[in-house]
TrEMBL record:
InterPro entries xrefs: CFA/CMAS (IPR050723), CMAS (IPR003333), DUF7884 (IPR057206), SAM-dependent_MTases_sf (IPR029063)
Coiled coil regions, renumbered to chain: none
List of catalytic residues: 365
Similarity comment: family membership: Belongs to the CFA/CMAS family.
The protein, known as: Cyclopropane-fatty-acyl-phospholipid synthase
Domain DUF7884: 18-88
Gene3D superfamilies, alphabetized: Vaccinia Virus protein VP39
Keywords of this entry: Lipid metabolism, Methyltransferase, S-adenosyl-L-methionine, Transferase
Amino acid sequence: MFWEKKLGSWVDNIRGRAALPLRLELWNGQQLDFGQHTPHVTVRVPHASALTYLLTPSLFNLGQAYVEGKIEVEGRVNEIISVGNALARYTLKQEGKFARIARSFHHTRKIDEEAIRYHYDVSNEFYSMWLDKNMVYSCAYFEHGDEDLDTAQLKKIDHILTKIRLQPGQTLLDIGCGWGALVIRAAEKYGARCVGITLSQNQCDLARERVARAGLSDRVDIRLEDYRDAGGTYDRITSVGMFEHVGARNLPLYFSRMRELLADDGVAMNHGITTTDPRDGETAYGGGEFIAKYVFPQGELHHIGTVLRTMQEGGLEALDVENLRRHYAKTCSAWADNFETNAERIKPLVDAKRFRIWRVYLAGCAYAFMQDWISLYQILCTKAGRDVSSLPWSRRYMYDA
């Protein structure tokens, strides 16, 4: 049969390039091993129609086949991700259709709100199953590399608040406040008066509950609000894991809004994921296409060069830039491990498709950060054109505190 010849040729081609710990189990009982040793990953193909996903094994095709139930996969998720990437690398070319292409989406308040709610309003209980105890859904900071996730997330928050030199009585705006961990810490430890904004109703509700339980309702205000609608003037502004949703066309607007909301002598921090492609392309082999369809609708990543340029166009001067790529690889690995550990408790909380989406997404992100396909930067900034002679002359204050 035609498919037998084509499948055999594909398997032989990959075997000739690498011994993968993979076994294919076909609907007719046939088994095909890609290596000589016991396979770590088994892919079951229940029907010949599913072979189209395998014979062109882009990360989008493989991911779609898995989450849509076209194939069944057994194995540890990190090994599944590694094997999937190997299949793509040994079969496909990185140029053309599977290149790191740059996508641009149309962003409006309504579209952005729907995209945010799709991702974040799964359920608070779902996220609590694999995040740290404070539910911080962004890159942790492993100061020494051996911290547990709870400690590293708290250190990340303190690292940010120390960088912006937050002082008692100052006002802080947190754009994309999540479940409120940063503003609660800023009020409790640093004595700030805080406003946190989010487009997720679930996040807003739980953040308000947490603020009330902490006795901070007089110092922390959580609002369901778009950054374009925020008002007021703030001594300090933080944005953690938010600007990935803004869109390339809106970056100058986003940074100009940050400038408008910042006091003349204020300091802001933007903490977010970037692509490592200088042309603002997404991850290769169709990985970005999978994320756009199943995980982050409307999400766009930008190269650090683009971020710094559009920040300047928005009227902000970058004072300090720190790359935390390996910290995010370690963070995502911890999330993926937690997800696997709590899998049986997570499954009743979501449908089977969403469970599979998040399972491969978390492990896939860890792989992408480790491969330097994506990165994470913290950028400290202030209003452009101002006298900055009063600022610290070195970075020592970020660590001595």
